[in-house]
Amino acid sequence: MMGVVWHGNYFRYFEIAREALLNQFDYGYRQMNASGYLWPVVDTRVKYRHALTFEQRIRVRARVEEYENRLRIGYEIFDVESGQRTTTGYTIQVAVRRTQSRTVLRQPAGAV
User: Fold this and answer.
1) In what order do the strands lie in the sheet with 102-103?
2) Is 34 exposed, middle or buried (0-12, 13-18, 19+ CB in 10 A)?
3) Does 2.60.40.420 match the CATH number of domain 7-97?
4) Number of H-type helices and E-type strands within the chain
5) How far from 13 is each of 33, 46, 90, 101, CA to CA, in Å?
6) How far is CA 25 from CA 50, 60, 110, in A?
7) Cα(77)–Cα(88) distance, integer angstroms
8) Alpha-carbon distance 71 to 74, whole Å?
9) Which residue has the higher pLDDT, 68 or 84?
10) Can you tell me which family this protein belongs to (predicted)?
11) Helix, strand, or coil here: 63?
């Protein structure tokens, strides 16, 4: 079907929402970098309920679902006009010390 949004763009939408969410906690990408930790995405999932189309107005909601030993953020994408939920998904990130490239098994102090 022509005019359908490419599936890879959903991850871009998730990242924009994730960055906005983390900025609300004063732990955006700049603060992460300054803390000495990286937070790579190690797992992700998208469930496409209804296809998005070009020029469709959407709203993406992100929420922290888990934050003890890893950071799991859940996402929902809604059509602005109808309010219909079109997509759900999540990302999982773990803390990695930038200097050692080792995964940290506990949440660093000051993180989300």
Assistant:
1) 37-38, 96-97, 102-103
2) exposed
3) no
4) 2, 7
5) 22, 11, 12, 27
6) 31, 18, 10
7) 6
8) 10
9) 84
10) Belongs to the 4-hydroxybenzoyl-CoA thioesterase family.
11) strand
pTM, entire model: 0.86
Is the separation of the CB atoms in 110 and 35 below 8 Å?
yes
User: In Å, how far from its chain's centre is CA 1?
Assistant: 27
Q: Can you give the residue ranges of every domain in the chain?
A: 7-97
**How far from chain centre, in Å, is Cα 76?**
10
What tens digit of pLDDT does each residue of 19-72 get?
Answer: 999 999 999 888 988 988 889 999 999 999 999 999 999 999 999 999 988 999
Instruction: Show the tokens assigned to 53.
Output: 């189309």
Give the type of residue at 77.
I
Task: Measure Cα distances from 61 to 64, 69, 92, 100, 110 in Å.
Answer: 10, 23, 16, 33, 24
Amino acid at 73: I
